[in-house]
């Protein structure tokens, strides 16, 4: 059986391995996003922030995460989820690491805004997973993928505990490290589903 035939057969039946990879990637991205709000009480005290400043700092990543899903979904349709999801994870690691070194409010805004990229990962995984499953099984596949939301809960409970035991920075850095590990696994083992027809042009996507 050729590689193409094997891929097509996997697409017809669904591909649990690719689903696990995407769900894990979504989970670590949401953990990065969730660590911002989880650590905000500590940040508020350290930087002596007002309630308005806190609200703005929490709103910025949500803004990027919401708006960013549109172009990321388009890019996934064009180039495939493997490269786009890898880029999103890599891009999310940088501001997450930066959150551990912030000293000013402006630095907080920049780093928090960058962490919103992790929230935008949702649309990438939807496109990636959908390609591997036939229509009658996509509800199951996307339901499993959506369980990656648990990453935010992991951050909500885990980040303060890590910070209390290891230091403030580790409330962010542990999730950054997990994302690095998953990024490596994703790049090694993730594969795009075979395309059904030619890729859409930019004008068609728009």
Automatic annotation (TrEMBL):
Keywords: Membrane, Nitrate assimilation, Transmembrane, Transmembrane helix
Location relative to the cell: Cell membrane
GO cellular component: plasma membrane
Main location: membrane
Topological relation to the membrane, as annotated: Multi-pass membrane protein
Record domain Major facilitator superfamily (MFS) profile: where: 17-206
Transmembrane residue ranges: 19-40, 52-72, 84-102, 108-133, 140-164, 170-190
One Pfam family it belongs to: MFS_1
Gene3D superfamilies named among the record's database cross-references: MFS general substrate transporter like domains
Protein name (record): Major facilitator superfamily MFS_1
Organism: Herpetosiphon aurantiacus (strain ATCC 23779 / DSM 785 / 114-95)
The organism's taxonomic lineage, starting at the top: Bacteria, Bacillati, Chloroflexota, Chloroflexia, Herpetosiphonales
